[in-house]
Write a structure and sequence with these properties.
By secondary structure, this protein is α/β, with parallel strands linked by helices. It has 5 helices and 9 strands; from the N terminus they run αβαβαββββαβαββ. The strands form 2 sheets. The protein has a 7-stranded mixed β-sheet, with helices on both faces. Strands 5-6 form a two-stranded parallel sheet.
Length: about 190
Amino acid sequence: MKNKDTEYIYSPEEDTFLLSRIIQKYAVNNALEIGTGSGLLALELEVNNRFVVGVDLDFNALNELRISIAKKKTGSKINIICCDSASPFRGDVFDLVVFNPPYLPSEKINDTTIDGGPSGVEISKAWFKDASRILRKDGRIVFLSSSISDVNGLLDYSRKLGFKVNVLKRKQLFFEELLAIEARPI
């Protein structure tokens, strides 16, 4: 049961688990997870990548990740920063940027863990734009989207920013299709 400090931390579900399986194949020097939430993806990135940063606006989420790291009782390659998206980083730093954004269409952002804006991709677009700024020229952005949001609009937006996009994996659920997507600069 969550307490009031952790009630708004996104608990890993099918979307997080799908993305976790996808990112296992990446091995780079510098990886970033935007919106780390529970930290599951940052912990997965730590396995094959030299240096990992997990960022989130929610200090409580970052504290939960810090606790998970401490429970491992081994050295960690994960650095934790409380910030909005990738705002504190200079350009051309990361080889890999990963995010599982809030993607449910919503007129108002009542729950920052699931509400993605009116078409469900407003936060995804903001994170993608920020990720594209800090990504190395041979880097990759790997993210998740859903058929219940304007995924085609998000893919078009990514292409307009100069990226080739590829759907790596699809997973059909009862009410939606999840899409794990890779984008790389053209």
